Amino acid sequence: MHTSAPHDPSAPASPGLGQGITIAIDGPAGSGKSSVSRLVAEALDGGILDTGAMYRAVTWSCLDGDVDLADREAVAAVAEAIDLDLGTDPAGATVVVGGIDITAEIRTERISQRVSDVATNTLVRAILQRRQREVLFATADARGFCVAEGRDITTVVAPDAHVRVLLTASDEERMRRRAAELDLEDSADTRARMADQVLRRDRDDSTVSEFLTAAEGVDTVDTTGLGIEDVVEQVLMRVAAAETAREEQLHGSAEAAPAASAPAWPGSAAADPDGSSDQELEAALRVGLEDYELDETDRELLEGGDGDAAPAAAPRNLPVVAVVGRPNVGKSTLVNRILGRREAVVEDQPGVTRDRVFYEAEWSGKDFWLVDTGGWEDRVQGMAYRVAEQAEVAVSLADVVLFIVDANVGITTTDEQLLRVLRRADRPVVLVANKVDDQRGELEAAALWNLGLGEPHPVSALHGRGSGDLLDAMLEAMPEEGRGGAVDRGPRRIALVGRPNVGKSSLLNRLARERRVVVDDVAGTTRDPVDERITLGGRDWTFVDTAGIRRRVLQSQGADYYASLRTRAALDRAEVAVVLLEANEPISTQDLKIIDMVLESGRALVLAFNKWDLLDEERHAQLEREIEQDLGHVAWAPRVNISAETGRHAEKLVPALDEALRSWDRRIPTGRLNAFLGALVAAHPHPLRGGKQSRILFATQARTRPPRFVIFASGFLEHGYRRFIERRLREDFEFTGSPIVIGVRIREKRRR
Fold this sequence. Notes:
By secondary structure, the chain is of the alpha/beta class. The chain contains 24 helices and 23 strands. The strands form 5 sheets. Strands 10-11-9-12-13-14 form a 6-stranded mixed beta sheet, sandwiched between helices. A hairpin with a 2-residue loop joins strand 4 and strand 5. Helix 1 crosses helix 10, helix 3 packs parallel to helix 6 and helix 11 crosses helix 23. It is globular, with a radius of gyration of 28 Å. The protein starts with 20 loop residues before the first strand and ends in a 6-residue tail after the last strand.
C-alpha cells in the first residue's frame, strides 16, 4: 500500500502537535459520512481518507483472486500485501490496486454485499487501522486538513483527532439514500435489498466496532431531514473551534492587541471621522499585515498590485518553453499537468505526438507558450526522422527547455544523444526526472546529477507530485520577454452548450444567417465543436456550437463519449457560455448539471430560454417558479428569452454577453476592495466561535477571468459568511454574469 511520510502509530501525536487539523467522521451506513466528508474536505482545501474504501479494495482483491472470505488468515494476508494506491483528493479520490482503477467497481452491489465479511475480520482491521493512521496524519501535515470517515475512526483509528463527529439518521432515511446512490427505483424489492445492504451490514459490523452511539468526547449530529449543506456547516463550525483551541495551545492565551494597534476600518467606531482615502487605508492595512506570518506566495500576491491601476502595457513577446525527450517518457502528460486540462493526447504507446504543438500556459501570474514535441530519436528515417526534426526546431525556438527523462529507466543512449543536441542549441535546460511516485524514486532520480545539467527535478506528471517546484525552477530560468509572439485572442469566444436537441445549431444558423451546421430533429446531430465567426451588434464574435451533453457521459461510448469530451474542451477555450434551456419543458437535472459544469470551468454565464414563442400563460408561471427554485444559485446570470427557429429577441444576446464579459474581466482596486470589506465587517462582524472572532486582515483581487479574491484572515471564515461577502460584492460592484471565487488564507501572528 502506497502512503507518504508514514506516521508512527505506536507514538500517536496528540492534537495540536502536528502540522495539520484532523477530522474524524463515523456513523452507520447511509448516514452521509462519505458525502459530508468530501464536502468538508473541499471546503477546507484539505485531503480525505475513505477508510471504507480500504476494506472494499481488500474485498475486491479477494474476490478477484478467488480467496475464500471465510478464511481469516488468507484475507489478512491479502490486506497485508495489497498494492493499494489510495487517493486523498476530495475532488476525485481514486482507488487503484495493482495499477487497476477500481474506484467505481468497489461501489457496486457485488462488493457491498460481501464487504462485511472483510470488515468483521479482526485480523484485517488491525492491519488496515494502522495504515489508516499513517495516511491520516501524513495527509493532514501535507495539506493542512484531512477528513477521515469510516468505522471506528473516532474511537480506534483516530481517538486523538481534533474534531470527532458521529453522524446518525433514521433507518428509512439511510435506506433511501443508499437506493438513490445506486439509482434504484422505489419498490418492495429495492427496500428488501437496501435492508440487507444497510441494516444487516450495520448489525454485522457492530459486532466488532462501535458506531451506533457516540463515545465520550464525540459529537452526535442527526442528519435526518437535514440538507447536506446544513450538516457540512455544523462540522465546519466544530473545525473552526478546533483551530482556535489549537492556536491557543500553540501560542498560549495571549491577550488580543489593543484596538488602537490595528488600522481602523471605515465605518467602524474607531475610524477617522474625516475619512481617509482608499489608498491610505490600503497602505495602513499592509503595514498591519506585516505582524502576521506570510510566505513567499503571499508576498508575491501582495506585490502584484492592481492590474488596472497602470496604463495598459504594450503586447510583449512571451517566453517559449519546449518539452523534449525520447519517446514515451511522459512529455504530453506533463504538458497536460502544466495546462491543468487534458489538451495533449496521451496514450501508452510511443509516437502519439508528432508535430510541435503550441499551448498558451500560465504559472504564478506569468504567461508563456508551452510547446509539446514528439519523441526525439537519433539515426531514424521516415516519420520518426521528421518527428525528431520538429523537436529540434522547437528547441531552436525556445527560451527554456524542459528535458524529460524517465527516472525509472535512467539514462539511455538516446538521452545522451539528445543532450548533445541541447548543448549545441545553448538554451537554458531544466532537467525533469519523470515517473517519480515515491521517496525511493527520488533516490533513483538523484543519479541524474551525472548529466551535468544541475539539479534533477523529480516529478510525477501523472499524479502531479513535485510539479509546483518544477514550474518554479522553470520560471527562474525564463526571461522576462522571449522569442514567442504575443497572444492574439481575436474575437470574444462564446460556447453554445446544452442538452441534445435544445436548439444550439438552430440558433447558430439563425445568427449566421445561413445553414452553417446540420440541424435535425434527431438529438445528437452535432458531434464536433463548430467555430463560426459571426457579426452581431456591429462586432465580430466567435460562436462555438457544441455537441449536446448527455445525461450519462461516462456511460456513453464511441462518438458520443468523445463528442462530450470535445464539448468540455471547447468550453475551456471559450470566455462565456450561453446555456440553452427549453422554455416549454421543465428544467431538468441534466440542465442543472450542465450549468454546474460551466461554473466549474470558471466561464461567464448567460442563460438563454429557447422556444419562448411556444409558452402559454400557465407554463410561463410554472417556469418562473422553477427558475426561482432551481436556478437560485445562478440568479446573477443574465437571462434572455429567445426563439432560435424564428430569431425572436436573438439581438438581446449582445447586451447580455457584454455585461457578462465585463464582469468576467472586472478588477476592483485593492484600496476600494478593503474599504468595502471594512464597512461590511463593521456592520456585520463575523460570528464568535470558541470565544474568539476571526478578523479580516487584508484582501486583494488575485486575478480576473473569473474574478478571484484572496482574503487574509486571523481565523476560519464560515462558508455562510463567505457567501454573504460574495452576495454583497455582486450587489456593490455589479458582477453580473460572472462566477466569483473567494479564497481565505489564515495567517497567525508572528511570535515576539
